[in-house]
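Sanity check

After download, print the first record. It should look like this:
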Amino acid sequence: MSGFKRIAMACALGAMLAFNAQAQGVADARAMTIVVPYGAGGIVDNTARAFAEKMSQELGRPVVVENRGGAGGMIGMNAVARAGGDDTLAFSAVSPVTLSPHVMKTLYDPLKDLAPVASVMYSPVYLVGGPRFQGSTFQDLLSQAKADPGGLSLATAGVGSLGHLMLEQINNQAGVRITHVPYKGMAQMVPDALGGQFSLMLVNASGPVNALIAEGKLKLLAVGSPARLPGHPDAPTLAELGYPMANMTSTFGFFAPGGSTPAFRQRMNALINKIAAMPEIEKPLASALNIMSTGTIAQFEAQIRKEYADNGKIVRQANIRAE
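Expected structure tokens:
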């Protein structure tokens, strides 16, 4: 082979290798999507965006957050279930997987089409009154609800959400009728509560909500929590008040499409656990009284299956149906 031919072949080989490297770089730069199945703003969206920023830095590729709210989170979760591949995650409360499918028909199989990846935290649930609520205690709530059936209105993150289930537990056990006001998520609930659009709401713990409680603009009547919260020691748990079945917390975590690869889910679990332990992620969540609860895929999957079974029993016993 002549020297000229050898040089030509070497150049061609070099060009081919450069093209492959460039193509790989393009593939690596392809954006990953985190679907938030609620509206923009609020604790779920804000936490997802904080994780997305860190994930982008760790992976060296864009990670974008896409809000797909509606139907208590089921619209967004259906989008993830249908996405397939290894480029999509959901960050959500677990209720669209463990609760909503018992209340209404879903377009996805919650235990097959969605794969648990990593639990991140659980959040206490506040039962609060806004300016429209003329009272200051849970007993005031019950008295008004009994005196005026349907007169009190309570907002939750949507039909089939955890707040909806908690409300139905209170209604059924107390023998009252508090009107349900479903939202597409929690972000708009707070300003609407302050504007007097409804009387009460069940909302997750967050820094802004804590500040409004401290300012007296919202009244904390009770909490869904295993014990009284250090930041609100005077607020009784719903269990203390005699409503153990309504005494629930919201677990939040990441899910992947059921068709994603096990290797992708394992890689994401390790990365999410790493990010959750970063002070700039953990401290703001903890200061808002959220409890970090990371672990393995197997642990999260076992939790999901248990909650799915438990919620199914509660829904059947309470005869809860979509409104």
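If your output differs, re-run the checksum step. Summary of this record's structure: The first strand starts at residue 32 and ends at 36.
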